[in-house]
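Batch job 17 of 40 flagged for manual review because the log was empty.
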Amino acid sequence: MAYRWQWQLGRIYRQQGERTKAIASYQAAIANLDDLRGDLVVLAREVQFNFQEQIEPVYRELADLLLAESPTETELEMARNVIEALQVAELDNYFQDACLTFEPRSIEQIDQNAAVIYTIVLPERLEVILATSDNQPQPQRMFAHHAQTIPQAELEEKVQRFRQYITEPDRTREVEQLSKQIYDWLIEPFATELNLKQPQTLVFVLDGMLQTIPMSVLYDGKKYLIEKYAIALIPGLRLLNPQEIDRSSSFLAGGVSKFLQVDNQSFHALNYVPQELTHFTNLDSQILLNEEFTPQNLLQQLNKTSATVVHLATHGQFSPNPQKTFLLMWQKLLTIQEFSTLLQSRIRAIANPIDLLILSACETATGDRRAALGLAGIAVRNGSLSTLATLWQVNDESTT
């Protein structure tokens, strides 16, 4: 009751032109929602809140309010924190639990050679915030901001079309045109800041449908973004515990190459999986193929080998429903919750984390932004420092 009252009060203050009071009311509502994280997801289904109608708008309306008028550096940082909090709330709602723990860390504490780009999708415009550090002995965060006037429906239509075209080899020209347009919204407005700071890595915290497309393929008319920067995608800085990786890599590989029928679903053979799994591993690497690729064997090898790179080549699906988000193992569909539990068991047994988890031959549900939450959830729940996966169905040979 309190958060809804504070939310409504913020709306009233905004209509009356009382911007400072409106911001304070919205912040109070979000503070209450943060306190209620655990309660909101365990309520009986008949009294559960509709997230998109009763939770998400609080965050978006506050971001809108903060960014509507020439925002100050403080307001840009506040808006950044709002979108980070929304990402936490979305993942809580997706998994119907509140087990995500986080400790906010600023980008300058993690990597002074990185710049973070936040996107916020609002009904009539796209807001973009760039966060960098000043490369001083005591680095300070710096913010830049750009707003692109475009209705949300038009933005989502272009993103969906781009996502479709990128999987069609004869659509290169259309991909470049749409990619250039998205580049102009997200990157071009910050050309001066990026040229001045010269970051090595661009880190994206994406909102809505933008989560379903790869930032590496954004195109400036001559080059793709991946040709100029290292690219990373994160659900939010406050959801991760970034640290240096162990450069001495050891590998554990597993996958399914044979045709399988599991739970009334048919999965075609992946003939190139054996080649893929042996291509990058060395003689000492453990490979679990077909009948050996079971949850029990995977957990046993994770604990036994202390592998820092885990490469899984199999069928998988990221769905709007976490219960239908799975990886195919031998005669079993391993749900995302079961997979997270399996990897977390390794964390309890072995101190060093997995540096890189590769999920090869997976796909997210076409055009559904909630499906991408499954991929984001794996990234923050499994204890690995980085996760690599595909956003669409991909040919077995080209994957290899």
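Reviewer: the log was empty due to a logging misconfiguration, but the result itself is present. The chain has a mean pLDDT of 84. Unflagging and moving on to job 18.
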